[in-house]
Prior knowledge:
InterPro entries: TIR_dom, Toll_tir_struct_dom_sf
Radius of gyration: 23 Å
Number of strands: 15
Number of domains: 3
Protein name: TIR domain-containing protein
Amino acid sequence: MAIIFINYRTGDESFAAVTLDDALSARFGAANVFRDSRSIPPGTDFEPVLWRNLARSSVLVVVIGPRWLTGTGNSNRLLEPGDFVRQEIAFALRIGLDIVPVLVGGTAMPAAADLPTEIQPLVTRQYRRVHARTAEADVRTLVDDLARTYGGEPPMSESQPPAGTVVLIDPDGRAGPPAALVERLLAQASISTGVVHHDGARLRVTCPGERDAIALITGLVPALDRELSSVPDAGPLRISMAHGDPATAMADARRLIGDSVLDSVLAATAAARLVLIVTDELHHLVIRPGHRLIDKSAYARVDLPGAAAAWVHVPGFAHPRGLPPQRPAPAPHNSVGRVTGDVAQVGDVAGDFVMGDKVAGSKINYGGGGAA
């Protein structure tokens, strides 16, 4: 699921940013929506948190009200190099994020001449508008638009346990990383919701939401690998990661951490400091979509006895070694999937088989029949 970063100016219709935050959080989950005053804990060095979260976002929502240029003063704040509204937009443009300006009330899109050169492309981005009298409907339309593009789901009922990610860190009989170190690395990766527990000789990290699953893979795992590189005779660590409701994720993480495939990989990769194994669900959710900080080609599929597939990764290696032979991928069957565009045949979608999944758009036929 997408991470949505809300950019706004304090003193410029801040209620609009809060209203958008509430509505987007209800649809995407609060962990997948970043608004600095809510998302950054008190006392935190906020600048690193801003840039880390913006770097792993999918879209920047820029709230523009009548005092967007000046805030509570009289001068154009955007002309100040240290202005954070300017810096966030410039950073988003540099890394190629989608940007959606949201104009509040009758506010006009700023003229390019009023903006620093580095953020002038903002004025050509398709905008949405939120009026005070129709705010509820306008915000709902905006959220629906973003959900269609970035995959937000309606909020779950309160009786349904929230999905989260469970990480197990097993030192394999050696002295593993202390809980305090893991907590520090979680903080460095801006995973403020992560909780570290002792699980026998292992450490267990639990995090709600999907955004932290991305941060665990892009932040915690590489950081642990770097820490181990400076400790003589440390490791190797076994790390398993699963996503889902708390009970299922815990069971899956424990099943993976003890699988013999990790023995094979570590035996064939003497220089490895850690090996990561993730569930197929987590791979589909976080790795397969192609996050900019994740090399999905470095994850290898393994078929576990009596269980769904899992995916193995060894940091520093282009491909895990020592994997057992895998079963061939199942052949497509006669069912109907969906794909962007007109009717297509199996294999026409980015070179991958489509197994009846919803991709978005018109229907696909399996076996060459007509469109249903």
